[in-house]
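W.,

You were right to be curious about this one. When I first looked at the sequence I had no strong expectations either way, so I just let the prediction run and decided to look at it fresh. Below is the sequence, 296 residues in total, followed by the output.
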Amino acid sequence: MTAGFDWTALAEFTLIGLFSGGLMALIALGFVLIYKGTGVVNFAMGEFMMLGAYFFYTASVMWKLPLAAALVLTLLAVALVAALIERAILRPLSGQPVISVLMATIGLGSALHGVVDATWGGNNYEMPALLPRKAFTFGEILIPGQVVWSFCLAAVIIVAFTLYFRFSKTGIAMRAAASDPVTAYVLGIDVRRTQRLTWMFAGVVGAVAGIVVGSMTSLSPALGGAALGVLAVIILGGLDSIAGAIVAGLIVGIVESLTAGYLGGKVRDIVPYVTVLLILMIKPYGLFGTRRIERL
């Protein structure tokens, strides 16, 4: 009895989920960068997204700077904030129990949220439209333009970071410091510098993701909660794997889209975690995570 099944709707939901998963993978990349570089799960990633979106709104709308200039200024500002946070808060906690650093990131997130709320207020703001809105059509399938372009942007950024870590001298040093800090230090690598760069890169990734999400929806302090929805992605992919973030982002994006399309939005946030739970029963360390990861 499949004659009445709407295959076009299935294809549309699947493609929308696939393209949406690219943005999830980008947000997950910020978590992975921090974990690979410092061994810390940064629960303030959502606040980096929110901060980047508010900085961009201020520069582009309130200061009326050109979008390109506003974007560059925003990324520099968020990178500076991330560097200051690493130096003032995270570095003094070096060598402390993981739970202490974890609680510090939770407190940091709350502090950043409070600063944004006190500075810009809790109102909703409309962000400039960065990505083209014109829909893409594939036969009878209609895909929102912003979803497709956000996927393309996420893909470019992820590929750029992957190539940077694999082939650049600084990227190789960061990988070495993340893998074995003591040996890297003995070999002359400035481990503190690599950790600072890790936080700066993660801040930049979070800022870009926050700007994209804010331009597709609206800007408010609630934007920081968008990163919590990516926890299923980083758990499924493995906390230390960029490839895992990509694959898991696409999987979770498709599952969420199909769930929302066929079961409704109320079930959408539950099914991805059920899917993750089932997969983790077979792969306890995620699809690509290494077995030395300590689950929190």
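Here's what jumped out at me. Residues 21 and 251 are 7 Å apart (CA to CA). And, maybe more interesting for your project: The longest helix spans residues 7-38.

Coffee later to discuss?

I.
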